[in-house]
Amino acid sequence: MTLSADPQEPDSALQLLARPGFSLVLAYRIFAMLSYQIVAVTVGWHIYEVTRNPFSLGLVGLAEVLPFFCVAPFAGYLVDHLPRRRLGMVACSGLVMTALVLTAVAQGWLPFHGVWPIYAAIALTGMVRAFLSPIYNALFARVLERTQYARGAGLGAVVFQTGMVVGPALGGALVAWGGKGVAYGVAVGVSLIALGCLAALRVSEPVHTGPAAPIFKSIAEGGRFVLGNKIMVGAMALDMFSVLLGGVVAMLPAFLHEILHHGPEGLGVLRAAPALGSVCVGLWLARRPLQRNAGRVLLFAVAGFGLCVIGFGLSSNFWLSAAILLFYGAFDGVSVVVRSTILQLATPEEMRGRVSSINGIFISSSNELGAFYAGTMAKLLGLVPAVVLGGFAVLSVAGITAWKNPTLRRLNLRDLH
């Protein structure tokens, strides 16, 4: 495994951050993530506080992933055919609306009872999230040169995971200090900041000439492109099945209550630990972009991810669990950077929205679908057996991918330039 800087990539990470357009795109990403992560932590605690049922935590994931699946293909089409900056502002407005609804539920301002209004708000979040990543990926390619993509992907991963570090910790602290209503209210504020970043962005948009292709034909074209690229579809499938089978984050409220015996502040620490590990990896890869033996590095990282899942399931010590989740996030961070770089380098400009949406269906939704799977397995087998079994399943996925997809195993990123 070799990590090496690309001699054809002259700009340093600091020089990229000095570009106003790139900085605003990154700011949009981190503030949107802050909003989403604060809401995710608060909703998990909110639901478990009401139901005391791990299965209800899985239903949170299902309530988000089903609308995501329905909207994502059309979101990609719209990103490829409408002004991306304005579409992003509409999506950020959706985040504001979701947090406002949840604030009203927590404060008792709505004449509804039970958990269904919470699930309805999460369903709206799923629809909004279908737009966030395609918009980011499309704008990313407009504010950077192609030779800057690998280093920019590392910085993007750092910013993304920083949002996932700060968001959960902030969400847990806000719930412990001011209650659920305060946490949801802060999510409203950071959503508005994300919207403001896009409002201030000045970027050229692709010029579309001639009539737009029929929507379903256009979506199918994007699907054929992805499925025809063995490297891209292999990386997406590897990450999807790993997160689907090995995700433990959705079960953290139950682990805290039943095994680790900590309150909401502990939830913030455990939710932040994986993201902190990813940030450390992203900073390294932004400084020294991965070029050679990227496929092997990716496969070893997924295997390490599976071992961490097993270790977390067997741990009964809070700080040992937090340390394991730190490495869990570091291994996942390698996958994020490699996959993001493949996506940017291998995708034609006119297909960025559709390909990014398909990537979202493979990857982003696997977190929520994995939450439903984890909740179901925990109810059937118990918390610890379900998580440990998932870790062994991830190891199997890494082994099968290495065997069945030699093109991905032999991947060098410099070959995609």
From TrEMBL:
GO terms for cellular component: plasma membrane. Keywords: Cell membrane, Membrane, Transmembrane, Transmembrane helix, Transport. It holds the Pfam family MFS_1. It comes from the Bacteria. Coiled coil: none annotated. The keyword Transport applies. Gene3D superfamilies: MFS general substrate transporter like domains (1.20.1250.20). The chain crosses the membrane at residues 26-48, 54-75, 87-110, 116-140, 152-176, 182-201, 231-256, 268-285, 297-314, 380-403. One of its GO terms (molecular function) is transmembrane transporter activity. CDD domains: MFS_MefA_like. It is found in: Cell membrane. The keyword Transmembrane applies. It is a multi-pass membrane protein. This is MFS family permease. It comes from Stenotrophomonas rhizophila.
